[in-house]
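DATA SHEET
Item: assembly model
Revision: 1
Owner: S.N.
Input lines:
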Amino acid sequence: MKEHPLLRTLIGVGITAVIVVFLSVRLNAFRDYQIAEIATYVTAVAGLTVLTGLSGQISLGHGAFMAIGAYTTALLLLHLGWPFIAALLISGLLTAATGAVVGIAAARLRGPYLAGATLMLGVALPSIAYAYQGTFGGDQGLNVVFTAPGFLGASFPLTRWQAWIATATALVTLTLLANLSRGRVGRNWRAVRDDEVAAALAGINVAATRVLAFVVSAACAGLAGSLLAIITALVAPGAYTITLSITLLTAAVIGGLGTLPGAIWGALVIVLVQTYITDVATSHGLSATVGANIPIAAYGLILILVMLAFPQGIQGAVRRLIALFVPQKENIPHEEPTVRKKAHDEVSQPL
Amino acid sequence: MVEFLQFTLSGIVFGIVYAAIALSLVLIWRGTRLLNFAQGGMAMFTTFIALEVVYKTGEYWAGFVVALAAGLLMGAIVELVVIRPTLNKPELNSVIVTIGLLIMLEGLAGIFYGGQFRSFPTAFSVTGIHLGRTPLGVSRFDLFVAGAVLFATGVLAVVFKYSSAGLRMRAAAFNATVARLSGIRVARVLTVGWALAGLLGALAGVLVSPSTFLYPNSMDSIFVYGFTAAVIGGLDSPPGAVAGGLILGVGLSYVGGYVGGGRGSDLTAIVAMGILVVVLMLRPAGIFSGDRLRQV
Amino acid sequence: MSDSTAGREALAVENLTAGYGGVTALDDVTISAGTATITAVLGANGAGKTTLLRAISGLVKPRRGRIRIHDTDMTGHAPEDMARGGVAHVPEGQGVIAELTVEENLRIGMMSRRTTSRERATSLAEAYERFRPLADRRRKLAATLSGGERQMLVIARALLGRPRVLLLDEPSLGLAPRVMAQVMDMVVRLSGEGGITIILVEQNARGALAIADTGVVLNLGRVVATADAKDLAQDVALRHHYLGF
């Protein structure tokens, strides 16, 4: 079994799909919506965790890529009436192309410079919606009309269909990423992250490797944006601020940076905690604004605490737990989220 | 021609605010080689505190002073509690930690003060002043903004260059090992550096909030412009930060004013992003740095 | 310097074990230096000489062992505290802050003790008196100094802290032979007139042993020989094996 990682992944995917279908039938529409939301986040966070954790490039602007995917889908559905699957794929491709552009521009950027540049992307891009209100609908955004296909029958709940599509997208994405991560591409990513000079000396095209990571992760974000468009039925700039970008990063970090299961943990935490806190807040009579902001403040605090105390996130804890029960075989290198050390002499002494 | 003058002058005023943020970033960068992503968020929060004080006391200057004091205090506390533990860890950790701080502050502001756009008072009139009959496009308050930042910058420059505290900070920034071996308490120096940066950020916050309105995300774009200004000037260079701020402020002002269809003002963020990318690709060490090679 | 302190241990390193990450660079090292003596620490590259100085000055935290300065236990103290406690460390190859002026570098040297501004002025004047070339270039950036002048600046700065123990790591590295000799002369005078205890790490073993009182030879982090400098210099087998001459 251990020699066929692809088979293991597919089996895992299959089991998850069955579980989701089962849950989606048994649970109510709101839960179906949550499943769709979680799957959407998983898609986006998986791409981000690969970019930041595996290839070592931080991005604070992935909300912008989601916005591109969302608006593309909204426009295609609105103006061309294409079937969703086509819109989904086109959104992914377009965002991937944008990712290539961003990746090339950022190829020589490291650390805080890269973070600042991507933050700029996240802040600046939504303003296009305001600048070209005719096309993008400005502050109000665009409405997205989406219905379930006919063959399902008239009584099939839309939310369940959305949950299925979102989950399918997420599972396909995870499978593809797992494959990439296990293969030469993944090894190149990790090599470049750990020691660029050594990687270059070993014959790896560092720039191409880094750009590819951006392309892949942007595509994931674009697909997620597309899903978000149909789930929320609205695409407006207010949903794609840097708060979204940072929420994605929070999910990746909490779950375990650089690990695909971490993307799942992170997405679960983000969506479920958000709902839970909002419920608690409103039941205690706090306003909706407060209820919406408590999770945000919490994410910030969690990010700080996780980084200071548990940098490996949930997946790190899970793995350590498993290691207690299962005898240690060799390390599976592609699960280790290490990050480059600072080269600066200046404040490297213990204070 | 009159328009050009107006755009230039108002661009300078905004540019000076970007320069203040840029300076606070440079201050921290020189001391710790970190970029404080929470700088804008901290400034927003201290401005909210100032607003509360103004409401309670009815006095603008009370709020002003409290904001600066809060900025000083917040900078020191953040360094001690949040930043210090990350100093020997990988670089990514401190980026994420300051990002965490940023959204924590934005969330807290949303909880305590709500999300609506608040207007922030000014101490001076905001009506445009005229030279003879020509409207200059700037007001008395704008002049105050420029004056306040320049004054603060001047004081800091003098302190750095001529006082022994300033010498300690420069020594610690240039070569922390030698500084420590000479008995300089580098850790304390770092805290002071962050406190001063917090002060500068708080100043920028109260000065710019009348124009941008105050809400949890209001300093996001100011921060990002300040970062761009710092990159233009070179993250190591305080005069570069000021120059970068002015260049960016004036440049964006022209874009906002001259690009047609009324789109100009919405596109300033995109243009700023373009400027940032161009500078980072062509001259990552900044326009004003010497031949010092910086790893970008 | 009262006679009762002469000959007492200024520096005692006991069973020191220290290293970086997974590497142990010093293993159970014991060294003692009497007041106002010169101890030469010798050995091949990688023997642990630099690590020893860094452990004494606090840049490296010892894993095991003790460090005493004039009988006060200062094991594990931070570099700032060691400096304030009278230990001056002049690291190899650096020690001058190139972006600051000569005078600013000197002023930094005085930051390890409490001084009034008059005391500072007097101390500076003395330093300029003793090191004339520095006086001529006091407002110039340290980056513009030659190798020998930088070494002078570094030692001048260290002395302004009025240290009791001075750790010198390869002070003659990269210097012309004549300048090297001047540096060595200065080291002798510092211990003789100034009563400073000097620990001298040198690649130039012959030159170091010529001026030192005691010699300590390190190899792979361990002490392989401790003896009077004269005796070490005459031990041909030892010299050949560990010191290359």
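QC remark: The longest strand of chain B covers residues 134-139.
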